[in-house]
Amino acid sequence: MAARADNLRFYVDESALGLGKTLAMARKDTVHARHPLIRECPTSSLDTVWMPSVARRELIVVCRDKHIRSRPVERLAYRDNGLRVFFIGGKKDLSTWEWLGRLVKHWDRIEDLVSSQGPGPWGYVVTEAKLSPIALV
Question: Which domains does the chain have, with CATH numbers?
């Protein structure tokens, strides 16, 4: 299965590139940094480049930032671009396999939130146990 241009919903940023590549192979609606369907988001893109591009396409962001709660400037960038974001949280780095397991475990809840929360900006931290809202201010 490969992502299709007419069906894109999720963008995985460079912070979780291995996960993004895996999801792009498994799902028709997911792309990642450097994916051929989103050439305007190569690897090593600054937030000021990839965030507006992803926002224009109305894609939902999946990323890894274990320090997002203590980085208000980064949260503001997501907010200012009107993005919907799922931050993979946790105190330690995980393998791509472990990140994938965490997302799959919560995928039904992720889909429910996408439907119920509507347009951005909004964000949730995805941990082993739950999804928690995070203020993008």
Answer: 5-134 (3.40.50)
